[in-house]
């Protein structure tokens, strides 16, 4: 190099060079040139380049060299670059160390440095430390600016205190800081994260009323919060987060904001995840009409969305249009279409598309193979799935654990347990350990064939490979033992399960209660019912239904209630639990009514019929009777007729009940009981 090289030229080369170590080599070699000396610009560029690529040791050496060669009071920009690079890699302690060294080496941190380190701490969840830095800033007499307050607002929102964030937002003008869209959108996002949907929506519109329109980047972050919130909400549609995202989109566009491809893609992705693919396509069309070109993510998201809702023809149409606009289908596109075609049962088209992908130069990866193998397995085409697995190995594409899981699970569902076990052993020999779902599927297959010994061998294999059986595993084994009438082993397995730390659930207890009832061990069954409630597990319809059916099949209605402390009438067991919210099946009602009628206890039987009417356990036809007095007279008769029609009660019980519900004296007495009981 000639002596004409200037620092600005070196800085430009550093920025242009993609390899940080080559940039460092050039940076070091240029120092030997006569008359050349690095300045603040070149040092800062070198620190940024090394830190961006994670070359932190080299970066620290340059920072140290900078301190030796330049006035330390001027180096704040260098320190800030180092802090930001550490922050991007979540190296929080290293960023804090840089901040603390500034003062030590004579570079007094300004508000800019405080804001940077506070933001790094908040972004990484160190909220208390961020607060301490803020208090230190105040102690030094440095006045916070709008960025400081926005970072504080973000900290409040991240710690679940959106109302505190809102108070700080409203207090900003009094501190000489104007509202901005970032602060507003941060608080709005905080309210949504805390499920304060209405407060968030009102604040958003208040922001627009104040003529504060977020820029595209800020708005994209808010839309992302809403779409992400929708992903983790079970009752997404009821919560309305996606609707709010759509409405916000319309509001800001009407205020003059021009969304970019990221805005549209975020919203389109959220809509497709909730199966609102037609609406997503409408947004894509708006996108095109506004002059924004959809990218591969846009097209793939909509194609995948249509395939998942079994609208492959719509996916084809979108793809044709996309290809016309220059989109080149990739592996994800083909996977989506193959999946959709397989779900529709169009296996031949799926295979044809799979072959087309290879012909067009798309590498047939394990993901593409697994998609087609999954389609074969869904259609019960195990032989074809195995052939494809062999083909992929011949072509140098090794099957992964998902390949084996798919085929093993499908074999189990078709009852090919020996073949499934052989394939599982083959997978383990090759170093692929099936997941617990596959083991459970295989165990379930053996248990359904009452091959309990083989099922227990699979459990032993799980322990050998350090896979701990879960509650599903044990429930499958218990169910198999129950069906094979092996009651002693049922209780032994239950005991062993708890000793190994596996907590039983309501399904476990239901099986134990059913086994006890079948063995006429009703005291044991009631003990399990007590244990359920003591463990804080809520009994369900199966729990009570099993108990009631067990007692009725034994012809002993009184026994159920007798075990709970009163032998006056067994049917009270049913009535008390219905009052507590238990919703029995009509089969359960029928069995109790049959048993009561055999014992000629019509008063209790009629009370149950009226209870069914009161609680709404009635055929739909009852709800079509609009006049309440007529409905009151007709409903019990309709219930009794419906129970007979569906074979829930015997004809003998029907005759007794039909006459009994028409008996005015008995009816009056029963109504008084129901009213006093409720």
Question: Would you give an account of this structure?
Answer:
This protein is mainly α and 678 residues long. Helices cover 72% and strands 0% of the residues. It has 39 helices and no strands. It has helices spanning 7-16, 20-29, 40-52, 56-69, 76-88, 92-104, 111-123, 127-139, 146-158, 162-171, 181-193, 197-209, 216-232, 236-239, 241-254, 261-273, 277-289, 296-308, 312-324, 331-343, 347-359, 366-378, 382-394, 401-413, 417-429, 436-448, 452-464, 471-483, 487-499, 506-518, 522-534, 541-553, 557-562, 571-579, 586-598, 602-614, 628-645, 651-662, 664-677. Helix 3 runs antiparallel to helix 4, helix 11 (181-193) runs antiparallel to helix 12 and helix 36 packs across helix 38 (651-662). The N and C termini lie far apart (98 Å).
In summary, what is this structure?
Helices cover 72% and strands 0% of the residues.
Topology (elements, then pairings):
Blueprint: H1 7-16, H2 20-29, H3 40-52, H4 56-69, H5 76-88, H6 92-104, H7 111-123, H8 127-139, H9 146-158, H10 162-171, H11 181-193, H12 197-209, H13 216-232, H14 236-239, H15 241-254, H16 261-273, H17 277-289, H18 296-308, H19 312-324, H20 331-343, H21 347-359, H22 366-378, H23 382-394, H24 401-413, H25 417-429, H26 436-448, H27 452-464, H28 471-483, H29 487-499, H30 506-518, H31 522-534, H32 541-553, H33 557-562, H34 571-579, H35 586-598, H36 602-614, H37 628-645, H38 651-662, H39 664-677
Helix pairs in contact: 1-2, 1-3, 2-3, 3-4, 3-5, 4-5, 5-6, 5-7, 6-7, 7-8, 7-9, 9-10, 9-11, 10-11, 11-12, 11-13, 12-15, 13-15, 13-16, 16-17, 16-18, 17-18, 18-19, 18-20, 20-21, 20-22, 21-22, 22-23, 22-24, 23-24, 24-25, 24-26, 26-27, 26-28, 27-28, 28-29, 28-30, 30-31, 30-32, 31-32, ...
Organism: Erythranthe guttata (Yellow monkey flower)
Protein name: Pentacotripeptide-repeat region of PRORP domain-containing protein
PPR repeats: 75-109, 110-144, 145-179, 180-214, 260-294, 295-329, 330-364, 365-399, 400-434, 435-469, 470-504, 505-539, 540-570, 585-619
């Amino acid at each position: 190099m000639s002596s004409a090289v200037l620092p600005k030229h070196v800085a430009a080369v550093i920025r242009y060079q993609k390899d940080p170590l080559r940039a460092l080599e050039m940076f070091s070699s240029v120092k030997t040139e006569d008359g050349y000396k690095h300045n603040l610009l070149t040092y800062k560029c070198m620190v940024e380049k090394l830190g961006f690529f994670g070359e932190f040791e080299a970066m620290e050496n340059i920072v140290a060299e900078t301190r030796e060669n330049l006035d330390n009071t001027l180096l704040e920009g260098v320190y800030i670059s180092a802090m930001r690079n550490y922050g991007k890699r979540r190296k929080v302690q290293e960023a804090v160390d840089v901040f603390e060294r500034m003062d030590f080496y004579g570079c007094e941190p300004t508000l800019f440095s405080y804001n940077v380190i506070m933001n790094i701490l908040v972004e990484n969840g160190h909220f208390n430390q961020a607060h301490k830095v803020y208090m230190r800033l105040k102690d030094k007499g440095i006045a916070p600016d709008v960025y400081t307050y926005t970072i504080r607002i973000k900290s409040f929102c991240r710690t679940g205190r959106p109302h505190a964030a809102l108070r700080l937002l409203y207090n900003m003008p009094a501190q000489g800081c104007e509202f901005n869209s970032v602060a507003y959108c941060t608080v709005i996002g905080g309210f949504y994260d805390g499920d304060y949907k209405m407060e968030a929506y009102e604040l958003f519109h208040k922001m627009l009323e104040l003529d504060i329109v977020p820029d595209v980047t800020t708005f994209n972050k808010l839309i992302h919060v809403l779409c992400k919130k929708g992903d983790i909400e079970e009752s997404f549609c009821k919560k309305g987060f996606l609707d709010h995202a759509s409405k916000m989109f319309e509001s800001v566009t009407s205020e003059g904001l021009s969304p970019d491809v990221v805005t549209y893609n975020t919203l389109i992705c959220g809509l497709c995840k909730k199966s609102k693919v037609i609406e997503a396509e409408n947004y894509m069309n708006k996108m095109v009409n506004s002059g924004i070109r959809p990218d591969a993510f846009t097209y793939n998201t909509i194609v995948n969305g249509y395939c998942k809702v079994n609208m492959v023809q719509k996916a084809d149409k979108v793809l044709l249009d996309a290809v016309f606009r220059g989109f080149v289908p990739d592996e994800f596109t083909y996977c989506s279409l193959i999946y959709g075609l397989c779900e529709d049962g169009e296996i031949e088209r799926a295979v044809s598309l799979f072959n087309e992908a290879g012909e067009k130069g798309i590498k047939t990866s394990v993901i593409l193979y697994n998609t087609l193998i999954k389609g074969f397995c869904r259609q019960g085409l195990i032989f074809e799935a195995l052939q494809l697995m062999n083909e992929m190995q011949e072509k140098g594409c090794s099957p992964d654990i998902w390949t084996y899981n798919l085929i093993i699970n499908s074999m189990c569902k078709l009852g090919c347990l020996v073949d499934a076990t052989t394939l599982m052993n083959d997978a383990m020999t090759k170093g692929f350990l099936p997941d617990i779902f596959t083991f459970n599927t295989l165990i379930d297959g053996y248990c359904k064939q009452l091959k309990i010994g083989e099922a227990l061998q699979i459990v032993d294999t799980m322990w050998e490979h350090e896979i701990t059986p879960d509650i599903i595993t044990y429930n499958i084994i218990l169910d198999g033992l129950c069906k094979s009438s092996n009651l002693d082993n049922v209780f032994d397995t239950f005991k062993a399960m708890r000793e190994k730390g596996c907590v039983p659930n309501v399904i476990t207890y239901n099986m134990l209660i059913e086994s006890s009832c079948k063995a006429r061990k009703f005291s044991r069954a009631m003990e399990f019912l007590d244990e359920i409630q003591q463990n804080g597990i809520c009994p369900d319809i199966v729990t009570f239904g099993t108990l009631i059916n067990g007692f009725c099949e034994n012809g002993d209605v009184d026994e159920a209630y007798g075990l709970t402390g009163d032998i006056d009438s067994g049917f009270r067991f049913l009535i008390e639990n219905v009052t507590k919210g238990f919703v029995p099946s009509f089969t359960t009602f029928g069995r109790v009514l049959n048993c009561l009628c055999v014992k000629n206890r019509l008063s209790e039987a009629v009370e149950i019929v009226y209870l069914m009417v009161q609680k709404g356990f009635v055929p739909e036809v009852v709800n079509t009777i609009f006049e309440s007095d007529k409905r009151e007279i007709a409903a019990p008769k309709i219930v009794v007729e419906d129970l007979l029609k569906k074979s829930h009660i015997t004809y003998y019980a029907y005759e007794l009940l039909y006459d009994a519900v028409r008996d005015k004296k008995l009816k009056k007495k029963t109504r008084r009981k129901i009213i006093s009981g409720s």
